[in-house]
Amino acid sequence: MTDLAEGVLNGSRRALARLLTKVENERAAVQADLATLFKQTGNAWIIGITGAPGTGKSTLVNAMAKAYRQQNKTVAILAIDPTSPFSGGAILGDRIRMRDLSGDTGVFIRSMATRGSLGGLSRSARDAIRVMDAAGFDVVLVETVGAGQSEIDIVRTAQTTLVVEAPGLGDDVQAIKAGILEIADILVVNKADRPGSTNTLRALKTMLDLGHPASRMQMMAHHGDFLHVEHSTTTHENFWLPPVVQTVASAEMADSGVPELLEAINTHREYLETAHISTQLEQQRIQIELYDLLQSALMHQFLETLPETMIRDLVEQVQQREIDPHQAVRQLLRRTENVTEV
Amino acid sequence: MTGRKIRILIAKPGLDGHDRGAKVIARALRDTGFEVVYTGLRQTPQMIAEAALQEDVDVVGLSILSGAHMTLVPVIREAMNASELEDVPIIIGGIIPDDDRPKLEAFGVRGIFGPGTDTEAIATHIRALVSSQDESPNLEGTA
Q1: How distant is the alpha carbon of residue A310 from its chain centre?
Q2: Selected residue of B1, B4, B5 to mutate for chain A interface (largest A Cβ count, 10 A)
Q3: Are B141 and A88 in contact (CB < 8 Å)?
Q4: Is the predicted pLDDT of residue A171 greater than 70, yes or no?
Q5: A/B interface, count of CB pairs below 8 Å
Q6: What is the DSSP secondary structure assignment for residue A233, as one 8-state letter?
Q7: Mean pLDDT, range A315-325, rounded to an integer
Q8: N or C, fewer C-beta in 10 Å, chain A?
Q9: CB distance A96–B51 less than 8 Å?
Q10: Residue A136 has what DSSP assignment?
């Protein structure tokens, strides 16, 4: 076992921090560490927190972590912020809202930039979450970028997904558009002390009454294909209807509604476990991850076999309207077929 | 390690509430491609050391305008060392009298930038600092 993996398992915060950096920077170099740690994962409950910017996600995460600490549960937080597409840099500012947690060794906060990944999660997020899980935290809170309409990644990673709304941020049609009803296991109306909060609450409840969200399982679809779903688990009596929880998370005032939120998360966990959906969902998550990894590995492998100029030439041909992009890709594929025939 | 992302913590220790400078620097460093962990105002030395540890930053940048640098910097350095962060350099931005500069450097401060410093010069300095750090990985892999 490497020093870092051993350090993580022994509770060294420095080793944990270092390994998380390596997960982001040197994927090839951490394969052995990840393989070692993987055996120790599966104990943490992974909670995704998503929602539009300004709904108070970071402050809510801070309040949730405090509440979990009161239950003596240890908490790791992965706070993800966007990478600037122009400079490749990022400002990771979620810690500003999490100062209450400082000085508590039962909490570990890590900020991460998306680094060009589009789904609201960083490409390294899955591995980072696993490292935190292996480090022995009871709960991992994953706060996404909150880009609004591209938050599917979190559903494919977390066991319970919270969608955070706030009063006054668009009407109920926004909610349908963003697909949040399908994403959410629990809907949170944060800033519930603000005017308009009851309207938001009512709108969300109405939307839920209008139709059950399509099966959460079907949201796990990959590349437009639906993965196989056992029907027995999605019958009406077995259906999870996302509850709507009102919260006030605040740096200045006392939080409210947070214990109720934790209770709702617990109920969701019990539902998944007693209905044996947990296992199935995990299988789907693993399958999707394997597809993702395979996709990038194949792409990488494929590009390595290409002569450097080939892509550039094809780009030029497409630009000159000599061939279309589909023809270009067919040419690329034909080329490798020839290579394997040789 | 070529082309790896530089991570820097920008923190404002002490009690003064002027964070404009820190924000300008955070933004400028983002625009040159750094990942900037921004923790905001009124950070205690322990909070800074803790954030630097958890975020595994390459450099800690402190913005100090209150004149309390001679008090704050040694305590922060000590708190960082206590967290096994001896190898993480501190740089300072703010109003620092010339007389204090050598003293701060003696505390291990690896860059002092006054008002009006070109942000590109700061970025260049940090890059050089980090690459010299990478070449002497004496604490690599410490658990």
Answers
A1: 36
A2: B5
A3: no
A4: no
A5: 96
A6: G
A7: 95
A8: C
A9: no
A10: T
Mean pLDDT of the B55-81 span: 92
pTM: 0.86
- pLDDT at res. A209: 73
What are the structure tokens assigned to B79, written together?
A: 């708190």
- Report pLDDT digits (tens) over A127-151: 999 999 999 999 999 998 875 545 6
Half-sphere exposure of A31 (CA within 13 A, CB side): 3
DSSP summary character for residue A118: S
| Distant-in-sequence contacts of A206-214, Cβ < 8 A, 24+ apart | A206/A172, A207/A172, A207/A175, A207/A176, A207/A181, A208/A181, A208/A241, A208/A242, A208/A244, A212/A239, A212/A241, A213/A181, A213/A182, A213/A184, A213/A242, A214/A182
ipTM of this complex: 0.87
Instruction: Return d(Cα A201, Cα A342) in angstroms, integer.
Output: 65
Judge: A110–B55 Cβ closer than 8 Å, yes or no.
Answer: yes
* Consecutive H or E run containing A250: none
The answer to whether residue A95 neighbours chain B at the CB level (below 8 Å) is yes
pLDDT at res. A118: 59
Contact A200, A166 (CB under 8 A): yes
* A22 has a chain B CB within 8 A of its CB: no
Cα–Cα distance measured from residue B139 to residue B85, given in angstroms and rounded to the nearest whole number: 9
pLDDT value at A229 more than 70: no
Pairwise CA distance, residues A91 & B23, whole Å: 10
The Cα–Cα gap between B37 and A181 comes to: 32
Give the SS3 label for residue A147: coil
